């Protein structure tokens, strides 16, 4: 049977106009091209860690560079299955396993993750923290779906550009969604809007997302996908404004 679990790309982009089309910038020098946006970071954390059903855990698939961009003290990200895609599976697996054990040791407090039941056993209180390493996107999907069969919640792709590109090239038998945070600089006192400098781009430009094969979904549909209210309206934070939107592959 074809896979039915939707694959959701979650990404923040900024428009970069060129002579021919508008590109969607996502990075500069290995980091984000805009200042820290608390609202977007909180949104990402909530959406990726909130499972759709009890006793399940969401998975996040990412490239090795994206994993390494997370502060070491936070790796792997808690209450989620961190799936790292790399060509150096053996080397990265050793490091990720060590970081996972360190993370679990920190979490091993008297009140951590489990409670005692009336029968003397334990009962999970919520999503688990785990990490696996795979050689490619398709093998990552196979690994996580097999290893966490019956316990897997939503599956997200969180970057970088190469992994996003691989996801967009997957066969059409798997539902594919994009939850995108649009980021723009605010216009102050009528000044001309200026964008952010980027050297890394989302592998689909703005125009292609409105052409055949994709549809822009309503704010109500995005709300259903992510489990919290999304208005689709622009909101200001500091020197930027952000907007959450969604797209769905239609064929």
From TrEMBL:
Organism in which the protein naturally occurs: Aspergillus bertholletiae
E.C. numbers: 1.5.1.3
Domain DHFR: 6-249
One term under GO cellular component: mitochondrion
Keywords: NADP, One-carbon metabolism, Oxidoreductase
Keyword NADP annotated: yes
Protein name: Dihydrofolate reductase
Family in the record: Belongs to the dihydrofolate reductase family.
PROSITE patterns: DHFR_1 (PS00075), DHFR_2 (PS51330)
Pathway connected to this protein: Cofactor biosynthesis; tetrahydrofolate biosynthesis; 5,6,7,8-tetrahydrofolate from 7,8-dihydrofolate: step 1/1
